[in-house]
Design goal:
It is a single chain. By secondary structure, the protein is α/β, with parallel strands linked by helices. The protein has a four-stranded mixed β-sheet with strand order 2-1-3-4, with helices on both faces. α3 links the parallel β1 and β2. The radius of gyration is 29 Å and the shape is elongated. 31% of the residues are buried.
């Protein structure tokens, strides 16, 4: 009988989704469409040709050379020249430019005399990724320009290029990224954004399906059985697991993103993640048995999820409240295991703890069933 209830619920859910165009959209074609949309947003991988402004108070050959260096950087593009710092700062505040480089008066004279001269750069640090790329490019260009000037001055006394370079730059630094060699910010941003998206979709779809089941049981005096719930869960578990696997195949297979581990090793973790989101969705609904309230609560819970994943800000430095919220989200634990596996090939051991934490969400299922039975008993 349980098997019959399971198969009936599975067939019924498939039929409901096929007939309801909105549910059909949210289950089948909207997830890959949204995933594609996110991918297109971050398709550049690295920030390039970011507009900057220059205030040249020196108007010398050396200052124009410095401006050409800034414009030649792949990160920056000198789009505006200002006569005053105030004009440039106004454009930074409105995102007309992302940085303002100020070349002081007497810059060329001081450099030729061997005296210190400072090129000042202002940028908006609120744009974290852009600011980081901009700052690194500015430091590199200014260091290159300083060494070039020093080498030219040293060549007068040491007419050997290698010796002049060694004198101008006695200590060289080599910084090599061990992971994410291309410094592609999409590699670590897009998977986290996608999991925030899938977490929201799975939870909301579970609420919609659960609400339909509760309403059917209330109206027809139909008795609830576990097979009904399992059949509905099984359908969405399969569909969304396939969506996530297909997305990973596109990113790491078709697009060739670097992967250290095996995508197949993530399959159990993906299934457990989807089930955990379904349990949370059901829990949201049984808390009020009101569709609008449960969907609103789920949206409020999942909306800011990306900020708590620890991708753009270290999780260890978050406040206690933020860390509690982070631990309440299945996606944050999934991403802990995901990055360990994909980026570092850390092995199954390092995926075991996050996987068990996600699996612990299933412990809420008895509470969901208890609340559902109590509600249907009162409704009957």
């Amino acid at each position: 009988m349980r098997t019959s209830r399971f198969s009936q619920a599975l067939k019924s859910e498939i039929s409901v989704v096929r007939q309801d165009r909105w549910m059909f959209a949210f289950v089948f074609w909207l997830p890959p469409l949204l995933a594609l949309f996110l991918l297109l947003i971050f398709s550049a991988g690295q920030p390039t040709n970011l507009p900057i402004g220059v205030v040249d108070l020196d108007h010398s050959g050396l200052s124009r050379k410095a401006t050409r260096y800034f414009d030649a950087s792949p990160v920056m593009n000198v789009t505006r020249h200002y006569s005053s710092i105030a004009e440039g700062k106004a454009d930074i505040s409105t995102a007309g430019i992302y940085a303002l480089v100020v070349i002081p008066s007497g810059f060329s004279r001081d450099v030729l005399r061997g005296e210190a001269s400072t090129i000042t750069a202002f940028y908006n640090a609120q744009y974290l990724l852009i600011a980081k790329a901009m700052r690194a490019a500015l430091i590199q260009i200014e260091a290159t320009l300083a060494v070039e000037v020093d080498v030219g001055r040293t060549l007068v006394f040491k007419p050997i290029m290698e010796a002049a370079i060694a004198t101008a730059l006695p200590l060289r630094t080599q910084m090599t990224p061990l992971y994410n060699l291309n410094m592609n910010y999409a590699v670590f941003l897009v998977p986290a954004l996608l999991m925030a998206l899938f977490q929201l979709l799975v939870i909301c779809m579970t609420i919609l399906s659960f609400a339909k089941m509760v309403k059917a049981c209330e109206g027809s005096q139909q008795k609830y059985e576990f097979g009904q719930l399992a059949g509905r869960f099984f359908f969405y578990t399969g569909v969304f697991s396939v969506h996530i696997l297909f997305t990973l195949f596109v990113l790491y297979g078709l697009l060739g993103w670097p992967v250290q581990g095996s995508l197949a090793g993530l399959l159990p973790l993906i299934i457990v993640f989807v089930v955990a989101c379904q349990v949370l969705g059901a829990l949201f609904h049984v808390a009020t048995f009101n569709l609008e309230l449960s969907l609103s609560a789920a949206s409020a819970f999942c909306g800011p999820a990306f900020a708590f994943f620890g991708v753009t800000f270290p999780a260890s430095d978050m406040s206690h409240i933020a860390q509690i919220i982070r631990h309440l989200m299945p996606a944050s634990h999934y991403l802990d295991a995901f990055y360990n596996h994909i980026s570092y090939n850390a092995g199954i051991y390092y995926s075991l703890k996050p996987g068990l934490i996600i699996l612990a969400f299933a412990a809420l299922a008895p509470l969901v069933i208890y609340r559902l039975k109590s509600h249907l008993r009162r409704a009957g």
